[in-house]
Model the fold of this input.
Amino acid sequence: SRRAYSILERQRMKERARDLEHKAAVQKLRQDSERDRAIAEQLVNQAIIRCKAESPAKEVSLEKRIQRTVQKNKKISSQSDRLIKRLRSKISVMSTRPPSLCPCDPDILNTGPGLCATNCSFSQNSKAFAQALASLVNCYQ
Done:
């Protein structure tokens, strides 16, 4: 019994260590993606400034295109966030855990298109992620 308890305790410690490593890796990925986003935003702003200097007509169309793309991405991202909140509330009521959408992260609540591996179907594809998440939420209704 003492031996069995110590074995269980060692397993729990290993699992906690793995969880901490995983959380640290996810946090690093989030920071990297945020840094990449900031760099991309700077590049876009520099391109707009260069375009302003070249011709005012190009500037307006480029700005509109960029604004539409940014708004579309924000809309899809907020939709995914709302779906994850709905899924969290449904999970708290139920005792079952939902399956993961991709092999990148076993916990669906920590997954996202920005955190997936490059060979994942959801990598940088927030629209597909939102659709899969919506179908999963509908399954739990």
Remarks:
- The helical segments are 2-54, 56-93, 126-139.
- The CA atoms of residues 19 and 25 lie 10 Å apart.
- The chain has a mean pLDDT of 80.
